[in-house]
Amino acid sequence: MLAEMSKLFFVSRLSSYNKLIQGALGSKSCRKKFCLSAAKYSDTGQSDAPSVLVEKDANITLIGINREQQRNSIDAATAVKLSEAINQFEADDTSPVGVLYGVGGSFSAGYDLKELEAEAQRGSLNFLLRHEGSVGPTRRHLRKPIICGISGFCVASGLELALLCDLRVMEDTAVLGFFNRRLGVPISDGGTVRLVAAVGYSNAVDIIETGRRVYATEALRIGLVNRIVATGTALGQAVNLAFSIAKFPLASLQHDRNATLDNANVYARPGFHSAVSNEIMNVTAAMVTDMQEGVKRFKTSEVKGPKTDAWHIKQNSLPDWERAEIEIEQQLKEKK
After folding, report:
1. Which residue, among 167, 159, 155, 175, has the nearest Cα to 98 in the 3D structure?
2. Would the pLDDT of 143 be above 60?
3. According to the model, what pLDDT value does residue 255 have?
4. Do 199 and 308 meet the contact criterion of CB atoms below 8 Å apart?
5. Which of 47-56, 201-210, 231-240, 292-301 has the lowest mean pLDDT?
6. Looking at the chain, which terminus has fewer C-beta neighbours within 10 angstroms, N or C?
7. pLDDT by residue (tens digit) across 61-77?
8. Is the model's pLDDT at 275 over the cut of 70?
9. Per-domain residue ranges for the chain?
10. Roughly what angle, to the nearest 10 degrees, separates helices 2-21 and 234-246?
11. Is 100 helix (H, G, I), strand (E, B) or coil?
12. What's residue 123's pLDDT?
């Protein structure tokens, strides 16, 4: 899986920066200073770079997950910083709309695998029980709109972060999915609640139970994302969308947004908090064992090849009589 992720990441990086700075940033101020700190840290690979970048483009707040070498996976420290950044944005009266994105070609690969392995070895699921969420403030409603710019891989709890946002702009080569299914890690950041609200019960169960990939065309069709854009332009197009919303009178916009949250079935505030609580309170000790085995299987499969073909599509075997019929039909065709 990492090999495929690396391939997509490389292709995305190759074409991204030119497109990113050109088509992505239609706003005037963005053309002048598009994510300067993101570009700086991405180019230099500084080890002391902050794991979360916060910038403002006019009145739009840009929040970037900056752990490029880890595919923007989120450890405990990053989750705290992300929550702080979102809280600060919500408290900023001069910024009506925010944008959440990942630096360097992928939005987020979910929870940090090293920390996940350490938790599994300790037999602990405490990381799932953090008050606001394991990867950010996912167990509450955002107080202001945030647009998500999705590039590369947006999987596992990274997808839960994307679902936290009001709108999602997805690049045409990006990939979504609950890949944590393969590791035995439960969904615990509101994903089961928000996904059903976004795509309906049947689609949600399909995505959750199979852990399969969801590509851009399907994601748009089922309502999982709101826009498809060219590779390398997700951030810029998300910023443009944020500006198009921020130009409206804020009081009525917030009123209608809050009314929508209150009236939309599982998004209703009491129902939402109850559903999120159920998501984490039903975690069991058996999941610890699944998680331990899943992490081992994942690490081993990357080094020595997969130990199981459970994730591969298997060709149906034909019964002898059907094989014989096919041979007869082939012989008749050859005679003609």
Report:
1. 167
2. yes
3. 92
4. no
5. 292-301
6. C
7. 999 999 998 889 999 89
8. no
9. 2-291
10. 50
11. strand
12. 64
Q: How far is CA 33 from CA 29, 39, 40, 97, in A?
A: 7, 10, 12, 18
Instruction: Name residue, tokens 């450890």.
Output: 75
- Alpha-carbon distance of 250 to 66, in angstroms, equals 30
* pLDDT in the model for residue 78: 94
69: tokens are 């070498």
pLDDT digits (tens, 9 = 90+) for 82-123: 999 999 999 999 999 999 999 998 999 988 888 877 776 776
User: Which tokens in the block code for residue 188?
Assistant: 């615990």
| Helix or strand holding residue 289 (H, E) | helix 286-304
Number of H helices, E strands in the chain: 14, 9
- Is residue 109 a contact partner of residue 72, using CB atoms and an 8 Å limit? yes
Q: Does domain 2-291 have CATH number 3.30.360.10?
A: no
Q: Which residues lie across from 98 on neighbouring strands?
A: 61, 146
* Tokens standing for residue 242: 């944020």
User: If we measure between CA atoms, which residue out of 335, 170, 156, 307 comes closest to residue 238?
Assistant: 170
Paired tokens of 198: 């976004």
Cβ(171)–Cβ(141) below 8 Å: no
Q: Write phi, then psi, for 203 (nearest 5 degrees).
A: -65, -40
Angle at 8 between CA 7 and CA 12, to 5 degrees: 120
57/59 Cα distance (integer angstroms): 6
**For 201-249, what is the HEC assignment?**
HHHHHHHHHHCCCEEHHHHHHHCCCCEEECCCCHHHHHHHHHHHHHCCC
Residue 149 near residue 101 (C-beta atoms within 8 A): yes
